[in-house]
Amino acid sequence: MRELNLDQLRTLVTVAELGSFTLAARALHLSQPAVSLHVSELEKRLDVALVVRGPRRVSPTPAGEELVQRARRLLREARDTVDSVKRRSLGIASHVRVGASTGGLSHVLPGLLRMLEAQFGDAQIELHTGRSIDLLQSLKAGDLDVAVVAGGLPVGEGISAQLWRSTPLLAVVPKAWKAPAHVTPRWLAARPFIVNEPTTHIYMQLMAWFAQAGLQPTPRLEMPYDEVTRGLISAGYGAAVMPLEAGSTPLPRDVRAVPLRPALKRTVVVCHRSDDADDALPTRVAQAIGRFDERT
C-alpha cells in the first residue's frame, strides 16, 4: 500500500472539523471536487468509509474519527519537523509557542516571560494572545504548545490542564453609590452595569449568576478593556464584575470593590497536550508556568 498523503489527511481533518466539503474547500483554498477527491482517495486506499454525508453536516465514521485523531498528530509532527529544521538553520535550538488569555493577567505576563527566558534560555518562547476558547482550539490543532486559559471551559480529550490561579470576582462600583456589604444579583441587576465581551468566560459566569437568581438583566455596555471599564466606573457610568489580582493596577480612588453573594471566582489553568512526554519541552514549560508566582 502506498504511503498516506499529508495533504489528503489535512483535507480529511478540515472536513471533520468544519462538517462541510464546501467550507473545507474554502478554508484550504481548494475546489470542492478536489476536497471530495482527497477524501475518496483515502477511502479507496484504506478500503473503509471515513465520512457520512448527512443532509446538514458531514460527520466522520468511527474509522474516520480514528484516522482524524492520528492525522492531527502526524500533521503536527510534520509542522514541527519543518519548523525545527528552519530554526536549526537560524541557530535556534528549540522553540515553544505559548498562548495566553490576557484578561486580568496583563500585569503577570512580563514577569512570566522573564522567568521562562531565565529557565529555558536556549529556547525561543513565542507568545500568542487571544480568547481562551480560540487558544484551546489552537492547542488541539497543534498551532500552540502551551495554553494559559480561563478555567471552567471544556478542554477536551487529549489535553492536560493544571490549575494555576484562583481569584475572587468582585463588584467594582462608584464610591458614590451606597453599596451593601455584599452585592447580590438582584441589587446589581437594578443598576447600570458594564460587561466584558459575550464570548468571554467571565461574561458567561456573570450571566449564569443572574440566571440562578431568576434574572435576565440587560447590560448598559459591553467593554473588552478593563482599564477603560475602570475609568467608566470612576465616572459613575455603571458597575462591573471583574477579578482583582494582587499586583494589578490599583483601582481609582473614587471606586471600590465589594464581594459578591453568592461568590464567584475566576480560575486560570495551564494546558498542554497529554501525549507530550514528561520530559518534553512543552511539558516542562507548562509545569514552570504552573509553579510561577510573581509575588515571590
UniProtKB/TrEMBL annotation:
Keyword line: DNA-binding, Transcription, Transcription regulation
Presence of the UniProt keyword S-adenosyl-L-methionine in the record: no
PROSITE patterns: HTH_LYSR
HTH lysR-type domain location: 4-61
Database matches in InterPro entries: LysR_HTH_N, LysR_subst-bd, WH-like_DNA-bd_sf, WH_DNA-bd_sf
Molecular functions per Gene Ontology: DNA binding; DNA-binding transcription factor activity
Family of this protein: Belongs to the LysR transcriptional regulatory family.
Name of this protein: LysR family transcriptional regulator
Origin species: Piscinibacter terrae
